[in-house]
């Protein structure tokens, strides 16, 4: 299990180049003309986690199964997309399916790469995308709220939330503070574009990677409370084409401590409030992605629905104890294996073994 990120933005801002770099592929056509991406490209990337190798060595596992992130390169958006302009309908349908949005913003000057606008202005570009998403949401919400629900219809219970979101969107406000009051699973089923968590990626030139430039700094100043990352899609592409040692040396020369992929993965886990637990044994060491504060039965369900249905208890060892005492037996002998029940909130790094009735 992992999460799905949609890479969005205006045409020719570097979405497909970034997608190819993040997924180490050539799947997305990157060309110097609008709408070179029509159907979404999809790539799956493993989440790097140094803990997996250590756990696998101790457990003498036959294989390692990491967590995954799915990236979706979605067609460029233009003004009027909510009314079907450009590839708007296709774009908006694709983006409803993702967990988080990566907004790629053009933060570089270039006479060689076409720009759909006459000037470089990442804040304006973001507002174009956001406005189209809001307009699409408003239209969708109006249709939902106009329906007459029968007594006891679950949809009727959602009307209060839908009305709150609708009123905020009419004012041009992203209703972020509203959704925090409601169940996250409910929020996800509503498929409201404007409330999806987002990462703002400023696509800069090589010289601006570390300190940024006037464009990326404007984005950071305006969106101080959001995740803003400077990445050069071209440089990221070069990094992926090098072997590990060469890539590390190249990044060091550029002054980079971590790749754009690593930055996006960390940001994704942060904005989606995710953590990782493990199962480890001779067959495999497996990383599982869950939301923070997930209780044990719900964590068990991530592995298999039967684990939750027949949940009895969870045997829990912290990562540090598992490593320190060299595995399950050592942790048990030193009193570090705990038995937890249905109310236990799983912590990041926990190694779990579920007991359940079949």
What labels describe this entry?
40% helix; 358 residues; alpha/beta
Q: Can you write the helix and strand succession as a string?
A: EHEHEEHEHHHHHEHEHHHEEHHEHHEE
Radius of gyration over C-alpha positions, nearest whole angstrom: 23 Å
Average pLDDT taken over every residue:
86
Q: Low-confidence parts, pLDDT < 50 over ≥5 residues?
A: 26-38, 84-89
Kindly describe this structure:
This protein is of the alpha/beta class and 358 residues long. It is built from 16 helices and twelve strands. The strands form three sheets. The protein has a six-stranded mixed β-sheet, with helices on both faces. It has a three-stranded mixed β-sheet with strand order 3-9-8, sandwiched between helices. Helix 1 runs parallel beside helix 10 and helix 4 packs antiparallel against helix 6.
Helices and strands, with pairings:
Elements: E1 2-8, H1 15-23, E2 41-46, H2 50-59, E3 63-65, E4 68-73, H3 88-95, E5 100-106, H4 122-146, H5 154-157, H6 159-170, H7 176-179, H8 184-190, E6 198-203, H9 214-222, E7 228-231, H10 233-240, H11 244-254, H12 260-271, E8 274-280, E9 284-291, H13 296-303, H14 305-309, E10 311-317, H15 319-324, H16 328-333, E11 338-340, E12 351-356
Parallel strand pairs: 1-4, 1-5, 3-9, 5-6, 6-7
Antiparallel strand pairs: 2-4, 8-9, 10-11, 10-12
Helix pairs in contact: 1-10, 4-6
Summed up, what is this model?
The protein has 358 residues and is of the alpha/beta class. Helix content is 40%, strand content 20%.
